[in-house]
Amino acid sequence: MSKIWLELFLGKIGSYLINFFSKYSIWIIPFIFAYGIFMGLASYNLRRIEKKVNYEIINQTKYLLRKNPKANFISVVENIVLNWKEIVKLYSFFPYIANEFDLWVTKVSPVKVRELVMRDENRIRLVLERQNIFFIGDRGGIRKNLYLDYTNKIFRKK
Asked: What whole-number distance in Å separates Cα of residue 50 and Cα of residue 52?
């Protein structure tokens, strides 16, 4: 009886896939589990590097603002220097990186890390706002909702 229902709702291909998975699940599930651990480590590696980049941005901005308290955002951003090679070398414990929603990984290199970490042009401003570091004239603006902005980027109609 259940075979009839499976063929009715899933069709012949769907019932074939269910039968295939039930026969070989002892081999498929460990592979999926290992893939999940691999992707989790790669994602954690990127988050760890991002944390260090944020820390460096905040520290360098505080130092630059101590030197020149009336500095604007553009002058501060121009003077922030990140040593990507050293950050990757010291804070990468795994040879691959991945975003949370990626299906595959990327080999760790300073160019790829910089591309993934600094993908948003407002990243430095957002990192500084989270630490309550504002510049003259910035407080009057409407604050952007980060979660809605990223979901709009994901689900944007093309």
From this structure: 5
